[in-house]
Amino acid sequence: MLETIFNHKSIRKYKNKPIEEEITKSIIEAGIRASNTGNMQAYSIIVTKNATQKEKLWEQHFRQDMVRQAPLILTFCADLNRFNKWCKLRDCKPAYNNFLWFYTASIDAVIAAQNVAIAAESYNLGICYLGTTNYNADKIIEILELPEGVVPVTTLVVGYPDETPNLTDRLPSEAVVHYEKYNDFSEKNINTIYKEIEESEFTKQLIKENETDNLAQIFTEKRYIEKNNIHFSKTLIEVIKKQGFM
After folding, report:
1. Total number of domains in the chain
2. CB 3.0–4.6 Å: which of 40, 92, 180, 189 could bond 185 by disulfide?
3. In the chain, which residues have pLDDT < 70?
4. Is this prediction's pTM over 0.85?
């Protein structure tokens, strides 16, 4: 298990090879066995294999080729629809149409997704998370016909890799691990933490390709710019409201 985790790579190119049904069932079952709030399992997993349906999702995932190539697309959704209906059938009044439960169900969905990701990689499959799920949640809701109480949170593409990328750099543990309390970062800490990744040949190449002065500018001026952040934030809030969570 640890070998699988420590060798994780995001795969963006896939072979035209279907995944055996037994393996598909196994990795999804791994997701179902994930920890969740109160054993409510406030999430749903939408399995997409159909080429026509994948084409529709490809449009909403910024036309990333891996959505077309991978034989399996899994959309993980925060889902209180099922649980609400069960409560009403048992003469109970559910109280989950609020932001707290969107947040809670989203956590459950992501935990399930990570279980699936690790299980898939243990079968030598490749995976990649799609953050675009949050950008075009409204359109994905239409494509997958998600009812009120259901919001897509993240997506995994799964398939047999057609590339062998290097392991992605990670920050040292002191960047993300705090003992007993949060230890805020001094300028010296920040410079030390980012030193290795900023000086890597890969980063230097990225800076050259993006025509920026440093790595931080790639994030703030190229990848996740203010204009888009504000636009997609507004869109996602409207989706959450429309689906009955606010």
Report:
1. 2
2. 189
3. none
4. yes
